[in-house]
Amino acid sequence: MIETVIGLVTLVIGAAAGFIFGKKSVSADVAKIEEDSKKEAHRIIENAKKEAETIHKNKLIEAKEEILKKTSEFENSTRDRESKLVQKENDIKNRSNQLSQKIENQSRTEKAFESEKLKVEKLQESLEAKQEELNKQHETYLKELEKISGLTKEQAKEQIIEAVKIKVESEALKEAKVIYDETVNKANKEAKKVIIQTIQRTASEHAIENTVSVFNLESDDQKGQIIGREGRNIRAIESATGCELIVDDTPEAIIISGYDPIRREIARLSLQRLVADGRIHPARIEEVVAKTKKQLEEHIVEIGERTILDLNIQGMHPELVRYVGRMRFRSSYGQNLLMHSRETANLCATMAAELGLNPKLAKRAGLLHDIGKVPDEESELSHALLGMKICEKYGEHPAVCNAVGAHHDEIEMKFVISPIVQACDSISGARPGARREVMESYMKRISDLESLAGAYKGVEKAFAIQAGRELRVIVESDKISDKESEDLSFEIAQKIQTDMTYPGQIKVTVIREKRAVNVAK
Fold this sequence. Notes:
mainly alpha; three-stranded antiparallel β-sheet; 15 helices
């Protein structure tokens, strides 16, 4: 390939010389150029050969180095494998030694076990022999006893059991009667003590809120503005609030009549704003009523939050907080529902603390026990059962739900705080000044209850207790049986329901007992 290059160079040089000098004879110069070209070519060839030899030597050196490197790596890996194999052999030897030692220990243990087993078998044989000897002696003694007493074994056993049974029953009855009497006396004392301490520690307000909403005016001239032309303003107010406005001869006052206390409050606040503003027309009335409703809802939530904050109750669902705020505008027989619920909550916490129970859980149940009286929608359920459903819906503790549903005995009480809530509800509702009722009508209702029960045959006495919420009827045990007492309780309850007017519920309890009294001298 190098010779070809030299030839090409020579041709090129010749061509160039011919082109330069034309057709003249330049043989001497061409010969010189050819000779120089050959020398140059020879030099290039020599250099190429030297360079090729150098490259060849370098490649040989690199190949030798690579071979040495691979050889070294192979030797190192071989050494590692040999060391690992040696280590594994050592591990196998150690494990073999351990296994041999365990086998040796096992054989020693088996030998010791066999020795102990033989000892136990010998002891068992000796015990069986002694047991047989004892059985023979026992049979001999029994035969001698039967001859002496003239009774068989079974007859003697029956007589002894019967005598012991009679004696034990008599002693058990005496002991049970003593325990029962002591328990009743102690329970009554402790119950009275807890209730009295609870009432004394809970300070309650005796004022009763008025359930009639009256809006006072500065002058009677404002009545005409409120009524409007042809009564359009008053009709707009009644339509927007759902309450009836009574404008009569009462000086400087308008009576707001409505079943829902929240609607009455919305009507009162709306009238107050309209009169203060002076602009009273249907469009303005609708605007003011809508704004008042929104602000009252915010106020209700604020009341609920302040209540649970005052009672130190945490983690209550926001909807339940709103229900608590709604209780502020609801009354029960003249008693404000929120004040009654707060009072019941404090009583429950105090009583639970006295009894060593959880006061926080009892306080929560006391606050929520009448939550079913302020629902957003009407329901056919009683307020206790509806309140239980609401509490279950918003994730309250099962004990709280049961206490809310059972505080009027409509479901079974499953937790200890349930009777506490029931008792505190009665205390709060029955205390003097808690609920509005004319004394004469109250006394007449109590008297009518007792007279109604006393008119039945076999009734010895009748007592109305708990502010007329419960009627206890004592019957003569020799004239009324247990089955008849159940029927009598149902009949009296039906008679009260059809013939009398009363707030809430009345529980009828018929008591029939037979007492046997003896005196030991």
